[in-house]
Each structure stands twice: as structure tokens, then as C-alpha cells.
Amino acid sequence: MDRPQLADFLRKRREALQPEDVGLTRGRRRRTAGLRREEVAALSDMSVDYYSRLEQQRGPQPSEQMLAALARGLRLTLAERDHLFRLAGHTAPERRGQSDHVSPGLMRVLDRLADTPAQIMSALGETLAQTPPARVLFGDETRFDGPWRSIGYRWFLHPPTRDVYPEADHPRHSRAFTADIRAVYAQHGATSRAGALVAELLARSPEFAGLWEQHELRDHHTLDKRLQHPETGVIEAQCQVLVDPDTGQSLLVITARPGTESYDRLKLLAVIGTQRMTPDVE
Known about the structure:
With about 280 residues, the protein is an alpha+beta fold. About 45% of the residues lie in helices and about 10% in strands. It folds into 2 domains: about 5-85, Orthogonal Bundle (434 Repressor (Amino-terminal Domain)); about 105-275, Beta-Lactamase, CATH 3.30.450.180. The protein is built from 12 helices and 5 strands. The protein starts with a helix and ends in a 6-residue tail after the last helix.
């Protein structure tokens, strides 16, 4: 781990980013060159103290998970991400196949949706980044490790995952998640992460095993969804999907028709998110 070079790289990348680059408003009294440390910490889902210690050459060696979060927070390119990993004493992640790295372009789109439930997902249903309203609606889905990162895995093995959808819609979503997992499995094979996930689900979830045997596929995602939240009730929403062809990652944006009660309820999620926002601790 090269502490001086790591600290210098983080500082230079922070100073190169402007508030507008990450969807923040520039205040009249801003004197900092680029972003503030607390802003980068918030974008990277870590405490200000943890990030500050890295810039001050006195922090611990960051884990690969923390480095991936920093790469997203600082909007690094793949080359910059690899450099960050090497400075921190880690091998750069494999670029071939599935990657958790979100392109700066896709992150810029997400930054413009700060008041809208939106999140970036991997092909296997792993949430890589969320807006505050999305966290209010779905919970913090970036906190999971291992196979639990996949929404399809949690759907069948962790019942609270289903709470965001009305119970009457659960069978439809079970079929959809199974079909999504099958599509990734077919693309990457039995020896991939998708293959390992399928094997464990077949062993642990009779519901998944029954649906898997049906070999059901789907050629499009249903746009209309019903979502629910304890403080808003049921929301009639539409889910728009933007796919990055280079990574296979998807940007999901939840919207509702203007003038409807569901539209007002979605707007309320942004207010709830602002009221609940507190610094995350590493």
C-alpha cells in the first residue's frame, strides 16, 4: 500500500470533481477546489473520518469493497479504478465478464435523479448505486455481501425482501426473478457466479426449484409495477430501464403518472429520504 500516492490520488480526483458533476448544487460561499471531503464520503457511503484518514495518510488499508465504493463516489474511469486498487495494495479487478464498476456516464445520469427512486443494477440483480428515495423505498441494497447481493437470491431466501410489493403480486415477481436469473445463467454457464447462485437456490428454495423446472423465459420487463411503503401506501408506478451495453448494467428509474395520487406519493419519498439522511459509518 503506497499511502502517500494513494492520499495524493484521492485528493487530486476530489479536487477535479465539481459539484455539478455529481448532481450537487454549488453554494455561493464555496471556496473548496472541487468537492469537499464530506461530499466524497457521502457519495462513497463511508464516514467522513474514514475518508479523511485516507487523504491524511493515516487510514487502514481499504478493503476491495471500500475501494469499489470510492471508485463510484469519485466517478473514476476503469483505468483510474485499477490505479486506485494498485495504490491500495490490491490487484486490480478482472475486467472481463461481469464487473461491479459503474461507468462515470451512467453515474452522471443517476446523479441527475436525486429526487427520484432510481438505482443501478448488475445483470445478476445486484444493486451497485441508489438514490436517496430508492433507499427509502427498497432499503439500502448495497450493504449485502456474497450471493445476498442479488435481489433474486434474497427474494426466495429472505422474506422481508418481498415487503415492498403487495402480496397479490408476489407470484408474478417470483416468475420474473427466476427468468432473469435463468437468462444470466444461460449466458455465463454453470461455473459462473450465476451458476453457484442457481445451485444454492435449487437446494434451499422449493419455490425456486419448482419455477426453475418450468423453464419460463421473458423477452421484456413489465413497466407497470405496484410498490408499497409504510408511510405512503401502495404506489402505481412505471419502471423505466436503461441498459449499458458495455457492462450489461441497468439503470432502473421509478416514475408515476403526473396528477395521480401515486405521483404525489413518489414525491413524498424524496422528502422522507431527506429527513432520514445521516452519515454512514464504515
